[in-house]
Structure formats: structure tokens, C-alpha cells
Amino acid sequence: MMTIVIGITLCLPSAGLLLIENAGQISQNIEHEAEISIFLDKTVSKNQIDFIELSLKKNSLVKKIHFEPKLIAWEKLQTKLDVAVSSSVSANPLPDAFFISLNTLDEIKIQKLIDNLDGVDGIESVTVDGNWIKKLRIGLSLGKLSVFFIAALLIIVLLVVIGNTIRLQTLTYKDEIEVSKLIGATNAFIQRPFMYTGILYGLGGGIITISILKLSVFSLNVALIKLVSIFGTDIIFNDLPKRYYIYIIVLAMLIGLISSYISARNSIQRLKIYK
Amino acid sequence: MITFEKVSKNYLGSPEILQNINLEILSGELVFVTGPSGAGKTTLLKLISALEKPSSGSIIFENQNLSQIKNKEVPLLRRRFGMIFQDHKLLYDRNCFGNVALPLEINNMSKTDINRRVRAALDKVSLLKKERMMPVTLSGGEQQRLAIARAIVSRPSILIADEPTANLDKEYAEEIMNIFYSFQQVGVTVIISTHEIPSTKINFKRFQLNGGSIQNLIGHVQLPS
User: Fold this and answer.
1) What is the CATH number of domain A35-129?
2) Which of A19, A34, A47, B149 lies at a C-alpha separation of 20 to 30 Å from B222?
């Protein structure tokens, strides 16, 4: 019963960690550099486009430039949405656009560049694409902190629960403890079986946690396969790295050991015979 | 071997149970501690076996002052005594073998040695055939013999028995006392608290307790058989 309690209790922070690790994968897969999208006026002329491109090439902050004409953008969108191209459809709503990568992450320099671009004829709007990644990363950091905080609280709860169970066990074995003390057993000798029990509780609980996590990941991915087939995405829920599972087992065993050591030691000392 | 020097004992808020006790027990002696109920016999035995510390005075056991012994040294000291309690203090969830093996497990002996010594101890008290039986199935005399087996299995130099025949028939009581006499004959110091001294041909020492003090320190006395 105690192993189940430990297993399920540790599932909560472990699941949180699993979610954060998966969310973190998304941010890591995106290039770690600032990107700006420059959307041009719908009435911009070819000369203006050439002028803007030349200005961008001369700018020392710009690393890469990619120009996407509105026609290409429109065709891409229609392909993605699987909508048939028809000449009777209303005019292409998309503008011409430049997508540039910068060779700096300095927010002040990026903002100055944006301010300069805003004043250029032919440019409708300028957006910084990296902002949402920063927000995601901040969110993930906060998420990790929350998970650790919740984990700490749950560990304290487990320490108390296991400690209470071990204390009750020492009361159950009170007679044996008393006789053992009378005939010369040290407190350490008497404590040892209770500590082994605590470690085993932890081991069992850790295995249950891992089993639940593995089952959850498998079940989620089975469900996601259906989603992938509908939306054509390649989302997959990744399992935790193997080392995290070792950490979970070790942590669970440590919780069992520490809790049982403290509880058994206190209980046995209270059964002092020598006055 | 064991010397009491002006030893007194009282518990918090209570009058003194033992007052200014002076005595000496030599190695290999048979000692009876007698007296009425409440005289302090059990307290005296507890002081000898380091289950209690004196309120004042000193108890010297083989050049070690038990009054000043550190808590961590107490378990090691207790292993040198073989204790037999009035209520046996057997473990009813262990069989006879398991009960007798406990002191040897505490001493971290190997399984082979434990097996050999436990069987020898059970044989000594004529319980070898019942080694796998649970204590609850034994008679009163057999339970006491089992307690003796546990006390002797680690070959202590001192056996301390607190009213070992109190709840036994005369026949069982004689049986138990004969076991103690046999150990004393091979050099073990035997200290027994009892209401009345059983008949024996062996020389013994007697401490008569009354009202917390030793009133009569009777030397070696040979009773008629």
C-alpha cells in the first residue's frame, strides 16, 4: 500500500517534468536567433522592393534575407489549407514580405532597426518573431520552478507518511525491540530492518511511478497518431531521458531511507530501558 | 567481580528503594537475593545488569564503574550477562530456535555458528526436539527453560535470574534450579532473586533485603540436603 502511495505521489511532479521537457524540446528545435518579418505595402513597386532589399543587405545587423513574393505566399497557403486555386477567387490578400535573420540578440539594437524600418516607404509592418520564443522559455522556467516547488511539498508529505508507517511498525514490534535491547542489541542493529523496509518502499514506489509515466506516454502517443493523420503534423510526445528514471528511483529510495531512519531512531530511543 | 559501594536507588518523587547498599559478588559464586515483595530484589538485579543506574554510590563490575558508563557502551555490557526474567520475555512470533538465536544474531555470528550454538543450548535444557515449535505451545517450565537457553547461548560469565521459579510447580522449579546449579559448577556466576532459597548442597551467598537495605549478609551456608 505504501509503495502505491509513493508511486502515485511522485507521479505528479514527474508528469510535470515530462510536460516541461516536451515543451522545452519545441523551443530548442527553433533556431536560436532573432528573426524579423517585414510585410510590404500591397501597392509597393518593384523599385521600392529593390531599394529595401539593398538597404537590408547593407545593414550590418542582418545575417540572412529571404524575399517571399505574395504570389508564392498565396500558393503555399492554399496548398497547406488544401484549397483549390481558382481565378474567380478574390484577389490575393497576402503582401510581399522580407524575412530576415539577425546576427545579434541585443534587444536595443533590434528595436533601433525596427524603428528605422518602420519609417521606410513601402513597408507596412515589422514584427519580431523571436518574442514568443522568449515568452515560451520564460514560461518553461516558471513551470520548472513550480514543478520543483510542488515536488518539494510532496516529498515532505511522503516523509511524514512513511515516517508514520515506520513508527507504527516499531510499535508493532515493541516487544521484540525491548527484548533485543535487554540482551544487548544496539539501536543501530534494531533500526536496520526498518531502514531496509523504507528503502524497499521507495524502490517499489519509484517503479510504480516509472510504470505510470511510461504507460501515459504510450497512451498519449497512440492518441496523437490519430491527430497527426488528421492535421498532417509530426507531433510526438517524447519519453523522459533514461537518466531521469534513474533519478526518480534514487530519489524515491532516498525518501524511504531518510524517513524510516528518522522515524525508527526516534521511536526506538523513546523505548529506552536504561535510565 | 561485582562490588556495590554505598549504592542507593530511588525513582523521581518516590522514597528510596535501595539505601546505602554495600556488597561484593565474586566470580563463580552462587548468590541468592531474598526478601519480601517490594524489598528491592528486582531493582538490585537491574542495577547489577546495567538496566538501571544508581541514584548515588558506585557499582564496579570488572574494574568498570557502571554508574558512569556511557549509553553507547551499555549494549556491549549487557551482552556479557545472561538475563532470565520473571515473565520470560520470550518472542511469541519466533519459534524456539529463533528465540534462542536472537543474542547470537545481535552479535553478528555466522549462520553455521548460530545453528551449532543454539542446538547445543537447547540440548542443555532438554528442548532440542522442540526447536521448531512456538513458545506458546510450551508449558510454563519449558518456557522458562527456553528463556534459560537464550540466556546461556552466548556463554556469559554471569547469569542473572529474577524469580525464575515464581510461577512454576515444585517439580519444574527443581528442574530449573538444577540447571542453574550445573552452570555454577562450571564457573558461571549465578545470581538469583527468590522468595525462598531452594534446597541445595552447593555453597552459596545470600543477601537478605528488607525495606531497601541489606539487613543480613549471610556468608556461605550449607543447608542440609
Assistant:
1) 3.30.70.3040
2) B149
